Automatic annotation (TrEMBL):
SUPFAM superfamilies, sorted: Bifunctional inhibitor/lipid-transfer protein/seed storage 2S albumin
Entry-linked CDD domains: AAI_LTSS
Source organism: Miscanthus lutarioriparius
Any Pfam family the entry gives: LTP_2
Leader peptide range in chain numbering: 1-26
Identification of the protein by name: Bifunctional inhibitor/plant lipid transfer protein/seed storage helical domain-containing protein
Domain of life, per lineage: Eukaryota
Positions of the Bifunctional inhibitor/plant lipid transfer protein/seed storage helical domain: 22-111
Alphabetical keyword list: Signal
Length: 156
């Protein structure tokens, strides 16, 4: 017959087992919700554009365009946070949304057709949150108006 265990040993074993069980259940949840579930990676990539957007530079830096194109390839609907002004509300009053939407996209994407395509493809779907803390931006993007046959981008 095994000798009886002391109470502290049993308590430590229970705490350790509880921790391991909690970790085992949390791991699949973390794997199912990667950082790509938010637009935080896109927001971080677009920080290379901030000097231009906030009028600290007159030129759009080359890394900015590289990161805009990467965002179009990896998280295109996240650009809707820029178009809708959500990024401006998060970053602060120096953020010039017109420079972000008009100037940066014109230089980096060529013309407005890419942004219009993204607007069409992301319309009616909830956007991923901008960051885990700022989930106010998850509402569905309204579909673009097509009353005159021309596509217009809603900047506000």
């Amino acid at each position: 017959m095994a000798p009886p265990r002391s109470k502290p040993t049993i308590i430590i074993a229970c705490v350790l087992l509880s921790f391991l069980a909690a970790t085992a259940f949390a791991a699949p949840a973390a794997a199912a919700a990667p950082d790509e579930a938010t637009c935080a990676p896109s927001l971080q990539r677009l920080l290379s554009c901030l000097d231009f957007i906030e009028h600290r530079s007159d030129e759009i830096p080359t890394p900015c365009c590289i990161q805009v194109k990467r965002t179009v390839a990896e998280q295109p609907c996240c650009l809707m946070h820029v178009v809708r002004g959500n990024a401006a509300r998060l970053i602060g009053p120096e953020y010039d949304n017109t420079r972000a939407v008009v100037n940066v996209t014109a230089k980096c994407l060529g013309d407005a057709s890419v942004l219009m395509s993204i607007t069409r493809n992301c319309s009616g779907k909830p956007l991923p949150p901008l960051t885990p803390e700022f989930t106010f931006t998850t509402a569905a993007v309204p579909p673009p108006s097509s009353s005159s046959g021309e596509q217009q981008i809603d900047l506000g």
